[in-house]
């Protein structure tokens, strides 16, 4: 067992446990976006930052990748962490305002302003879909290409992948995407499998009046037919 | 080439080669690194060869083609040994004269280097201020060695450090020696090399350990590593061999960026020759020690200089960093323990072994031992590679070695550490150069880029330039670095275009601090330095851009305009002649008219209008807002 302190609380965890798992277990919630149980930790969204160490050596690390170490002093919501987290949410909101998950996170963390030029990107490159496809579906149909602001996700040569089984796993895990779901144009789809999902608004009429953030919406397309 | 089977066989070869050096024989040394070749060294080599043959001097005069000597401003340069006569900027005709004079044992006085201050000519290389103030332990090897001949390296005591280590056969003592020398990683972060080796040596040797030479030098305006790779490739191989012996590594990888074709060529030749001689491979010099080195070419991503990204690139994957721990020393390339050192670090290792750690620690200051190579570029008289002891001040480098400002404008700042470094103002020029002081000043040592800026440089524009570089070169994996650099660039772009607000300036600073804190790898963590350091030392320039909408250095073209003062214009029509777009018109002897819709703000008219004695400058630069009146 490894002994460490979480927000001043002395705890002990088993070896190999990440700080995120430890914090969640002991009731200190840490927001995440690119993390999902069953997929390998990636550390790209930076939302799960925690502060470790003391004095001038204190630093921010991603709790989803950092293993619990003996004697570590972890702060999951120090001023430094909160400041960074809020800025990250503001940046996320500026790039991808239509994502329900990001909106909820931003509101939960009291991000009340968005000072950057508004963008409408459909992807935050969290890499969940890529890992889902490769690790859980053993397909590897999609991947990253390019770097910097030219980085994007897609199939090789942007044509329909032969290894893709249209399982829909990528769309299921995506916290932001909607435009990549091209159900209405099945030929262009990365997977096109959202046809297999059953959107709640189809059989639950109360969803009718709610603002839907899916465009094009699968359910509406089906209803039209 | 016959394979050397024992340490004694190597020593025999070495003493035989060393004895054959004839120090009295005149030797023409031509520096032909990439920079030398680009400025015409190949022509000089051809002419020298032709002259030596036609005059029948081949037996009396040696010709040695070497790597770069470091004085870029003077390329193509020629050095004549044994006197050490240095001829800068030599043309083809002059080369003929130098060959003739060397044969006659004379010196061509009028081709020697001329001191711009005293107007005196200086003959010997070591007396020229640029070289005199340096401590060239690594770079001075460049002019003595022909990089494509291993015998040339062995002749100059090459591979003796390796032989020494192999003979002593105590790997532990090698690590101790490097630790005692206090050598710190020259790639920028300054991690103690000895400690890194010790950590690697302690790792279980299950599937083998790997040593990597990081030669992915991507900073704009920095080329120290290239010069060592091109001029002295064997010193790096020797350093890696010693490192492998000390740590028990069995594989070595040279990761060189593909933009360095000459360095790659020289390394391939060096590897082949060392393998043929039995210095690399299995059972080296009959001691049972085996180590193999391979070469991997980088595909041009700046981020691949970061060690975790570099490892992925060597594995053949997309070059993007990963979060540490596990550290490369625990889990590196293909899961094997890996230690990565910079080119310059490896080149220091044979020197430490040969001279001993005690002597090495005499150079430099406490905790910062040895020398460091900087590439001094920008607005100074003497640009080039300078090797100086740690702890020297920035002012000494810029003024004593660099020779002060190149133009009439005063020097304003020095940017150290490449795109992730910061700008240090002249008021801090007595800052000693070491890892800690530079970090405290908001910059970094980095790999050793040093860009001098004068008053014609706009600091906001500089920050914007580096941010553009970083935003394009960020791998894009971690969100903070990708979006953060992009947003910082956006704000800087707004400011240089006169659209910035004070709120944006605060936001810029806030964002920069978060990017520094929250990024995954070294690129993101230092990406804010250009912004933070310029904000810290040159805030008034930012304010001028934001509040007055004016660029004091007249670089940001959207923020100023040109205007003719009719009362002062004598109508000389000089400006009319130089204007490339025909924006200035007007009959002679009458005040000219400047058409702003055609003006491209090239500054040609402003530079040419100099009637100081009569009316002062008749063309002035004014902020856009003031530019409505007048002509």
Topology (SSEs and partners):
The complex is a heterodimer of chains A (225) and B (631).
Chain A: E1 2-6, E2 9-13, H1 19-25, E3 49-52, E4 59-62, E5 73-75, H2 79-95, H3 100-108, H4 128-136, E6 143-145, E7 152-154, H5 169-173, H6 200-203, H7 218-224
Helix pairs in contact in A: 2-3
Chain B: H1 7-19, E1 27-31, H2 34-38, H3 41-54, E2 62-66, E3 78-81, E4 85-87, H4 92-103, E5 113-114, E6 121-122, H5 129-132, H6 139-142, H7 150-155, H8 160-168, H9 171-181, H10 193-202, E7 210-215, H11 224-231, H12 233-247, E8 251-257, H13 261-276, E9 281-284, E10 289-298, H14 307-314, E11 338-342, H15 343-355, H16 357-361, E12 364-365, E13 368-369, E14 371-378, E15 384-389, H17 394-401, E16 411-416, E17 422-425, H18 435-440, E18 449-454, H19 459-473, H20 479-496, H21 502-518, H22 522-527, H23 529-537, H24 539-546, E19 560-564, H25 574-578, E20 584-585, E21 593-594, H26 604-608, E22 619-623
Helix pairs in contact in B: 3-4, 8-12, 8-15, 9-10, 9-12, 11-13, 12-15, 19-20, 20-21, 21-23
CATH class of the largest domain in chain A: Alpha Beta
Which CATH-level-2 architecture of the largest domain in chain A?
Roll
Biggest sheet, spatial arrangement of strands of chain A: 2-1-5-3-4
Instruction: Quickly give the structural class of chain B.
Output: alpha/beta
Query: Based on helices, strands and strand pairing, what is the structural class of chain A?
Result: alpha+beta
Query: How many strands of chain A?
Result: 7
Distance between the termini of chain B: 78 Å
Helical residues, percent of chain B = 25-40%
Read across the widest sheet of chain B, the strand sequence of neighbours is 9-10-8-7-11
Q: How many domain regions of chain B?
A: 5
Q: Describe the largest sheet of chain B.
A: 5 strands, mixed
Q: Helical region count of chain B? A: 26
As for the CATH topology of the largest domain in chain A, it is Ubiquitin-like (UB roll)
Uncertain residue segments of chain A: 188-197
Total strand segments of chain B: 22
**Taking all residues together, what is the mean pLDDT of chain B?**
92
Task: Spell the H/E element sequence of chain A.
Answer: EEHEEEHHHEEHHH
- Structural Rg of chain A: 20 Å
CATH architecture of the largest domain in chain B: 3-Layer(aba) Sandwich
């Amino acid at each position: 067992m490894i002994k460490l302190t979480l927000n001043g609380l002395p705890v002990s965890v088993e070896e190999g446990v990440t700080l995120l798992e430890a914090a969640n277990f002991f009731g200190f919630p840490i927001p995440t976006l690119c993390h999902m149980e069953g997929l390998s930790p990636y550390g790209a969204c930076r939302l799960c930052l925690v502060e470790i160490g003391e004095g001038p050596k204190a630093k921010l690390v991603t709790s989803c990748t950092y293993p619990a170490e003996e004697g570590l002093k972890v702060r999951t919501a120090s001023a430094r962490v909160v400041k960074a987290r809020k800025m990250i949410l503001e940046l996320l909101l500026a790039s991808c305002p239509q994502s329900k998950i990001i909106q909820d996170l931003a509101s939960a963390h009291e991000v009340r302003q968005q000072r950057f030029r508004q963008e409408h990107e459909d992807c935050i490159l969290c890499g969940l879909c890529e890992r889902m496809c490769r690790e859980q579906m053993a397909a590897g149909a999609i991947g990253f290409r390019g770097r910097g602001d030219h980085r994007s996700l897609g199939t090789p040569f942007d044509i329909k992948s032969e290894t893709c089984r249209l399982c829909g796993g990528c769309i299921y895990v995506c916290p932001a995407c909607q435009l990549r779901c091209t159900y209405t144009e099945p030929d262009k789809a990365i997977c096109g499998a959202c046809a297999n999902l059953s959107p709640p608004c189809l059989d639950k009429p109360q969803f009718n009046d709610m603002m839907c953030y899916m465009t094009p919406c699968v359910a509406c397309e089906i209803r039209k037919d | 080439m016959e394979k050397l089977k024992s340490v004694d066989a190597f020593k025999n070869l070495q003493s035989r080669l060393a004895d054959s050096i004839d120090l009295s024989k005149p030797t023409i040394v031509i520096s032909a690194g990439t920079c030398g070749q680009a400025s015409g060294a190949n022509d000089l080599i051809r002419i020298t060869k032709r002259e030596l043959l036609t005059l029948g001097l081949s037996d009396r005069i040696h010709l040695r083609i070497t790597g770069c000597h470091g004085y870029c401003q003077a390329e193509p340069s020629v050095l004549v040994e044994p006197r050490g006569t240095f001829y800068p900027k030599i043309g083809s005709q002059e080369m003929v004269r130098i060959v003739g004079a060397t044969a006659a044992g004379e010196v061509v006085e009028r081709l020697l280097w001329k001191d711009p201050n005293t107007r005196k000519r200086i003959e010997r290389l070591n007396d020229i201020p640029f070289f005199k103030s340096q401590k060239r332990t690594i770079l001075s090897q460049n002019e003595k060695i022909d990089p494509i001949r291993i015998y040339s390296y062995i002749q100059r005591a090459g591979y003796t450090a390796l032989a020494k280590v192999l003979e002593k056969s105590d790997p532990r003592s090698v690590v101790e020696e490097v630790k005692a020398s206090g050598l710190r990683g020259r790639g920028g972060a300054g991690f103690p090399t000895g400690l890194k080796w010790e950590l690697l040596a302690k790792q279980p040797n299950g599937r083998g350990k790997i040593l990597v030479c990081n030669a992915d030098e991507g900073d704009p305006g920095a080329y120290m590593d290239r010069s060592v790779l091109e001029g002295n490739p064997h010193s790096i191989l020797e350093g890696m061999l010693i490192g492998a012996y000390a740590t028990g590594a069995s594989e070595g990888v040279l990761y060189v960026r593909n933009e360095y074709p000459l360095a790659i060529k020289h390394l391939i030749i060096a590897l082949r020759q060392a393998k043929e001689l039995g210095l690399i491979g299995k059972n080296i010099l009959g001691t049972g020690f085996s180590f193999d080195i391979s070469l991997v070419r980088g595909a041009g991503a700046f981020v691949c200089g970061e060690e975790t990204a570099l490892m992925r690139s060597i594995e053949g994957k997309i070059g993007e960093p990963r979060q540490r721990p596990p550290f490369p020393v625990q889990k590196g390339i293909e899961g094997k323990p890996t230690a990565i050192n910079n080119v310059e670090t490896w080149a220091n290792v044979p020197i430490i072994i040969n001279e001993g750690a005690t002597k090495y620690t005499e150079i430099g200051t406490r905790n910062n031992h040895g020398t460091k190579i900087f590439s001094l570029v920008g607005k100074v008289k003497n640009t080039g590679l300078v090797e100086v002891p740690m702890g020297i001040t920035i002012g000494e480098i810029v003024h004593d070695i660099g020779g002060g400002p190149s133009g009439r404008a005063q020097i304003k700042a020095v940017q150290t550490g490449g795109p992730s470094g910061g700008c240090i103002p002249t008021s801090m020029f007595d800052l000693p150069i070491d890892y800690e002081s530079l970090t405290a000043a908001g910059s970094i040592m980095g790999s050793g880029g040093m860009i001098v800026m004068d008053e014609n440089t706009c600091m906001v524009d500089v920050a914007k330039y580096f941010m553009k570089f970083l935003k394009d070169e960020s791998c894009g994996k971690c969100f903070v670095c990708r979006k953060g650099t992009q947003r910082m660039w956006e704000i800087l772009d707004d400011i240089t275009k006169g659209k910035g607000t004070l709120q944006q300036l605060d936001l810029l600073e806030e964002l920069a601090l978060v990017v520094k804190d929250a990024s995954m790898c070294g690129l993101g963590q230092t990406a804010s330095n250009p912004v933070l350091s310029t904000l810290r030392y040159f805030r008034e320039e930012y304010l001028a851009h934001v509040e007055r909408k004016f660029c004091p250095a007249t670089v940001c073209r959207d923020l100023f305009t040109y205007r003719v003062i009719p009362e002062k214009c004598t109508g000389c029509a000089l400006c009319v002649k130089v204007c490339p777009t025909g924006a200035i018109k007007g009959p002679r002897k009458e005040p000219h008219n400047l058409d702003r819709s055609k003006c491209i703000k090239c500054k040609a008219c402003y530079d040419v209008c100099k009637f100081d004695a009569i009316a002062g400058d008749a063309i002035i630069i004014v902020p856009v807002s003031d530019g409505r009146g007048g002509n």
